[in-house]
Amino acid sequence: MNLNDKPIDNILVSACFLGKRVRYNGIVQTLESKLLQQWQKQGRLFSICPEVISGLPVPRPPAEINQITNKVITIEFVDVTQQFTNGAKQALHLCQRQNIQFALLKESSPSCGSNTIYDGTFSQKKITGEGLTTQILRQHGIKVFSEDSIEELAELINSSDPTS
């Protein structure tokens, strides 16, 4: 294999970005992005919703990470930490099976947030933090980006990808 035979970089992507009905409130919120459309045409994207793949329904009660207990709790005071952890582990296993080194995940989600999450009080206040899936992926060397940093992801991929 020569340098020009390097495989393209695949990307784990939040299923909600691709128009899938997976968000907690059941609302479809597609990420409109030429980069995402390009990567989809190239067959680079592997979509996942860690919350849905772990068995949580759509719609479902909103959940946030409690800053005192570090558990994921719904607005109805139900502990869903185990489901969120299971979904995060399944996302990691998909990355490992497909040799995925990059992820584009939904900012502020208790699963996918890469820079911010909600503060755990259901007051709509965001704080610096990471969702459970982002934490696990980063612990295993996968670079995680959000819709706010998609250009940075594109630059990183383009700098290492001869097909770009």
What does this structure look like?
By secondary structure, the chain is an alpha/beta fold. The protein has one domain (3-60, 81-107, 130-160): Rossmann fold, CATH 3.40.50. It is built from five helices and eight strands; from the N terminus they run βαβαββαβββαβα. The chain has helices at residues 34-41, 50-53, 81-98, 132-139, 150-160, and strands at 11-14, 45-48, 63-65, 72-74, 102-104, 116-118, 126-128, 143-145. It has a four-stranded parallel sheet, sandwiched between helices. A two-stranded antiparallel ribbon has the order 3-4. The protein is globular and about 45 Å long. The chain starts with 10 loop residues before the first strand and ends with a helix. The relative contact order is 0.18. The model has no long low-confidence stretch (mean pLDDT 94).
- The rounded distance between the terminal residues' Cα atoms is 19 Å
Main beta-sheet strand count, sense and barrel state:
4 strands, parallel
Radius of gyration, in Å, reads: 16 Å
Main sheet: strand order: 2-1-5-8
Shape, principal axes of CA atoms? globular
Count of domain modules? 1
The portion of residues forming beta strands comes to 15-25%
CATH architecture: 3-Layer(aba) Sandwich
Name of the level-1 CATH class: Alpha Beta
Mean pLDDT: 94
